[in-house]
Amino acid sequence: MRHAGRMTFDLDHHGDAEVGAGLIDLAVNVRRQPMPAWLADPIRDSLGRLSAYPDAAEATAAVAARHRRDPSEVLLTAGAAQAFVLLAQALRGARRPVVVHPQFTEPEAALRNAGHVVDRVLLREEDGFRLDPALVPDDADLVFVGNPTNPTSVLHPAGDVAKLARPGRVLVVDEAFADTTYREDCGSEPESLAERRDLPGLVVLRLSLIHPAELLPRLAAAQPLWAVSTPALAAATACASPVAVAAEREIAAAVAAERIHLVERLRQVPKVTVPGDPASAFVPIRLEKADEIRVELRKRGFAVRRGDTFPGLGPDWLRIAVRDTATTDRFVQTLREVIRDRGDEVTEERP
Asked: Where are the domains positioned within the chain?
């Protein structure tokens, strides 16, 4: 791990910029299946209430119950992007904000847009992009870390992340993809901190901000009035229901199987490296001249996420979204063909 200065990266670039008409989307970490009735029906019904101001009480209570928290510890937001902005704006007094990279770029972008001078801690491939909490500066009073981390797909042990919490520091853990890590054998998302109340200054980002009650007024004051729409509140309530949790766990099992298949296939391609032990709905790969290969893949119908906009990665990195096994097989075969056609040696695929 090393500390980094202020190298320039396009922090505003996201996977949707890679997608175009006719392309198979492996760039965006979003499921494409039709919306289930348990979610679609409440959203549709909410449209009849648009003449009233949004009331977040029911959704807040539902989300709080989902994570075994008090409603006073939950602030609903219009997505994680708004949550990052609220934190950056409300905590302008932070003396030394630190973002642990590689990770989702929105936290750093929000901090910089709010006037913060941001320090970076870069995790290294040779360490499997795993977190060593001792290397985060002791005087950092605002720390952002993802778990599981986008784009590396690393799931840090909860104990290691918890070691970053201390009095006088706000620790923000982005668990946007934690639902993909559910394990049937332990009946939980084993590395989530969403239910922890004993860690000082802990803020967990899920469907909402989960945080100490004493921090809520500062964040709420930075939030626009009625920031979450009535349909979004209906969706939040539905997504916290038992039927939604059951569906979420089924999806996690399917994603895990599809991810294993993707990783196995990618590791059979010469010159492609899959670091560490991917744990979420996307997989990073390193290969020489990946920036050029990404362009060629696009010509052959596949959109993948470039890696050079993530601090700590570079032009030899791509991020691949987990998809069904048939799509994975088509993609990997196309990747092999691109490498072959570029003149790089490609041996026969190992069984």
From this structure: 17-29+251-341, 37-243
